[in-house]
Amino acid sequence: MAAKILPVVKFATKVTIAGGALYVAYDSGLLGGSEQGSVALGRAKAAIPPAVEEWMKYFGFELPATPKIVFSPLDAWNSGVKKSIHALSVAPSTVSDYTKQGLQYVKDHSK
């Protein structure tokens, strides 16, 4: 009997955890618009460092200083899109050049 109930309990636990995570994300504004997301990110940035410091004092160990990383997802996205579009725009001429080089190679080595 326990073998039949255990999978149901596991599934119910997983669904409860996923539902709770979804509720917390929705309630904190992460699933809203960009303004709500920015506000939620600001709250998280303000709340996480004090919590980590409190845990370090409680457990009695120190973490190394976190490096400052300057990364803009918007710039990374834009540069990736620009490179992809550029590659697509020059693809016909690049294929033509490679075809000409390949034909010339075959002609030179078939004599």
Automatic annotation (TrEMBL):
Q: What InterPro entries does this protein's entry cite?
A: Mic13
Where does it live in the cell? Mitochondrion inner membrane
Superkingdom assignment = Eukaryota
Q: Which GO terms describe its cellular component?
A: MICOS complex; mitochondrial crista junction
Query: One biological-process term from Gene Ontology?
Result: cristae formation
**According to Swiss-Prot or TrEMBL, what is its membrane topology?**
Single-pass membrane protein
Provide the alphabetized UniProt keywords. Answer: Membrane, Mitochondrion, Mitochondrion inner membrane, Transmembrane, Transmembrane helix
Main localization (coarse): mitochondrion
Q: Which PANTHER family match?
A: MICOS COMPLEX SUBUNIT MIC13 (PTHR31816:SF3)
Q: What assembly does the database describe for this protein?
A: Component of the mitochondrial contact site and cristae organizing system (MICOS) complex.
Family that this chain belongs to: Belongs to the MICOS complex subunit Mic13 family.
Function according to Swiss-Prot or TrEMBL:
Component of the MICOS complex, a large protein complex of the mitochondrial inner membrane that plays crucial roles in the maintenance of crista junctions, inner membrane architecture, and formation of contact sites to the outer membrane.
Q: What is this protein called?
A: MICOS complex subunit MIC13
The species is Anabarilius grahami
